[in-house]
TrEMBL record:
Domain EAL: 23-277
Keyword presence, Membrane: yes
Organism: Acidovorax delafieldii
UniProt-recorded name of the protein: Diguanylate cyclase (GGDEF)-like protein/PAS domain S-box-containing protein
Residues of the full protein shown: 489 to 767 of 773
Source lineage: Bacteria, Pseudomonadati, Pseudomonadota, Betaproteobacteria, Burkholderiales
Keywords: Membrane, Transmembrane, Transmembrane helix
Keyword Chaperone: no
Amino acid sequence: AKARGRGAWCFFHEAMTQAARERLELESRLRLALAQGHLQMYYQPQIDIATGRIQGAEALVRWNDPQEGLISPARFIPVAETSGVIGPLGEWVVREVCRQGQQWREAGLPPLNLALNVSPRQFHLTDLAGCTAAALQASGFPAALLELEITESALAERTEEARQVLVRLRELGVRIAVDDFGTGYSSLAQLKRFPIDVLKIDQGFIRDIPQSEDDMAISAAIIAMGHSMGLSVLAEGVETEGQLAFLRERGCDSYQGYLCSRPVPADEFVALLRAQAES
Ligand code: C2E
Ligand code: CA
Ligand code: CA
Ligand code: CA
């Protein structure tokens, strides 16, 4: 039994070091990718439900590895978070989105609201407001067109500090969206103290509409609650006409999802806008 126990331990130990090694390797490759310009922003249209027009986009990061191809943020953002690479990566994202937004303005495209993601550690441990102010200034992109998405769970920890960061961002003139709303445990009382502008209903509540009565009730409640607090409400992960019809009926302000488009590279996003302008 003893021998077997040790064997199991050895196996466990090896599996652990293997996982740790892979993590370290991914981390150093990610640093290199950032330095070599292998990260790229994709853009997913956000649609105004009342008019059916594209009002802006959520910017989502992609890692374009010469060998592996596209690597999903679901795989490397967690590594960036635990290793600290999220600092420089987050800074690059803010700068790149502001640069792209300003370039689109200069190309004569209609004003677009651009949203980007801020992960919990980036929100709590880096100088987000300072970094955002610098990116806006360097690019000339108007703060009023920039939106920062912070997850509900990031706002639920160290709430007084979180509130102060949001206040500083608000002073810059950027908008704040609460991402993945409904999956965290923020109370209404807490939410009321934060200067926020948009609630993004998590796609988990949209997926099973119209089959799930519960999810329809929850989504309707989030829309009503958001409106009663003067917030705009966006539904994410909308894939079907049935889901959109439900959201329209409930007065949801905007949506994003495969029904309109997957996240696409910048030039394809411009093509979507031009196609819309002609219709
Ligand atoms: P998220 O912010 O909740 O983004 C929504 C995810 O849902 C995106 O995955 C998007 O491609 C996907 N999605 C959009 N529409 C649909 C749909 O209709 N159906 C389904 N099934 N999925 C849809 P993606 O791009 O793989 O990003 C995953 C997560 O990685 C994001 O979740 C966000 O938390 C994080 N992330 C992405 N880009 C960045 C970034 O630039 N910075 C940071 N800190 N995190 C990022
Ligand atoms: Ca998001
Ligand atoms: Ca989300
Ligand atoms: Ca999510």
